[in-house]
Amino acid sequence: MNSIEDFLAAKTYAVAGASNRPHKYGNKVFRALLAAGRETYPLNPAQDEIEGHRAYPTITDLPILPEALSIITPPEVTRSVVADAIAAGVKHIWMQPGAEDEHASEAAREAGLNVIDDGSCILVLLARQS
Fold it and tell me: 13: Cβ–Cβ under 8 A, 6 or more apart, which residues?
């Protein structure tokens, strides 16, 4: 399998930067993963609930360790999100377009994580699968 197939084969997901605002990509990615039947948790320190699901401030606050993490945050936030993900033991990280951070990518790869940071968009891939 390639890195995208590995990511999409995960059983559990978290979305860093999930949002209640329907026009934001964090909301679209969260809803797309749910619509695809995937167990998905929203991460947003400024929200208590997103789309009817309890939101969590950080990955360490989740009730489970997700296998995969989709990141839709500004690059400077991506660094801390990735550092938390590495420490928690996440296996797959997908930095959505605009969230990429070179230092975070390098750290995740050095830690042995599957990293997607090439400008690919999960929304496009999920749309093709449905």
Answer: 33, 38, 39, 40, 41, 66, 67, 68, 69, 70
Q: How many domains does the chain have?
A: 1
DSSP structure class, residue 101: -
Residue 110's domain is classified under what CATH number? 3.40.50.720
The answer to whether 42 touches 73, Cβ cutoff 8 Å, is no
What range does the domain containing 99 cover? 3-129
Task: Check: CB of residue 13 under 8 Å from CB of residue 64.
Answer: no
Name the pTM for this structure.
0.96
Token duo for residue 32? 């797309």
pLDDT, one tens digit per residue, over 52-108 is 999 999 999 999 999 999 999 999 999 999 999 999 999 999 999 999 999 999 999
